Amino acid sequence: MKSFEKTGESVWKKGTDVLLDLLFPPTCEICHQVQQQGRYLCEHCNKNLPRIAEPCCEKCGEMFEGNIQSSFVCPNCAGLDYAFSFARPVLDCSDAARELIHHFKYSRAIHLARDLASIAAEAFDDPRFQRALEQRWPLVPVPLHWRRRQHRFFNQSEEIARHLGKMLDLPVVPALKRIRATETQTHLSRKKRLQNLRGAMQLSRHGKTLLRKNPPAGAVLIDDVFTTGATVHECAKILHANRFENVVVVTVMRG
Ligand SMILES: [Zn+2]
Ligand SMILES: [Zn+2]
User: Fold this and answer.
1) What gap in Å lies between CA 201 and CA 142, rounded to an integer?
2) Ligand nearest to the CA of 73
3) Which of 117, 137, 223, 243 could form a disulfide with 132 if both were Cys (CB 3.0 to 4.6 A apart)?
């Protein structure tokens, strides 16, 4: 299967990166201590970001307190028929995590992509991803409309997916595209978000090529934050309609 990520960095680029690190040493985004080798989050600050741990909803990762032994579905997800099997966010919502992602997305802090991807990679320790890893399912970033991408300079999900693909040796396929610009979702309810997204996505040229050449059994949707699940649901719906049997979701944080 063809991977759509750039293969191999040139010696020139690596040399430039080393030089830039010497001239402007990278600092941790949270504690501002000088870092090594292009890292922007120190080990200490990374460890301090609270992770999602059990007991948590098996569909959306929402954490619950108490002694719950068996797997369960939270009241938010109970009545919903998601088009994806489950979503696995890694970070619980904390001020530090929220600020980090906000900064990444809205202040063009693209340099944080690798650190955020290495956090997202922890999701794959969940045994439910075993098939995805064994069968090398493609990582499919949630698409941005070209106009928003132009404004933001990059698609945050694509950047995370690109680094994740390298870390896990999985193909990255931008199989979806947004054909309609949607208003910002931040303050909308789940119902309004779903209405807002209707007909906004389509299979991309890359998605069609993938299906024609070597259709995979499943796909892993990649996004930065899981909030109501409306966006990844809409993406999974399109993938399902195009013969991707199993769609699972990985996000950096549970919003
Ligand atoms: Zn730090
Ligand atoms: Zn849930």
Assistant:
1) 10
2) 2
3) 137
Q: Do 163 and 105 have their domain in common?
A: yes
pTM: predicted TM-score of the whole model, two decimal places:
0.89
Ligand nearest to the CA of 56: 2
| Residue 17: domain span | 10-48
Which ligand is nearest to the Cα of residue 115, counting in written order? Answer: 1
Question: Does residue 3 belong to any structural domain of this protein?
Answer: no
Whether residue 154 lies inside any domain: the answer is yes
Q: Give one word for 203, left, alpha or beta, with left for phi > 0 and alpha for psi -120 to 50.
A: beta
- pLDDT tens-digit readout, 170-197: 999 999 999 988 777 777 888 888 888 8
Whether 153 and 240 map to the same domain: the answer is yes
Alpha carbon distance 183, 101 (integer Å): 20
- Cβ pair 254, 62 in contact under 8 A: yes
DSSP 245: -
Q: Please, which residues have CB within 8 angstroms of residue 183's CB and are 6 or more apart in sequence?
A: 196
How far apart are the CA of 57 and the centre of ligand 2, in A?
Answer: 5
Q: Is residue 170 part of a domain?
A: yes
| Spacing, Cα 61 to ligand 2 middle (Å) | 6
Which ligand has an atom closest to residue 80 CA? Answer: 2
63 Cα–ligand 2 center, Å: 9
The tens digit of pLDDT for each residue in 51-103 reads 999 999 999 999 998 888 788 999 999 989 999 999 999 999 999 999 999 99
Q: Which amino acid is at 6?
A: K
Interval 89-140: pLDDT, tens: 999 999 999 999 999 999 989 999 999 999 999 999 999 999 999 999 999 9
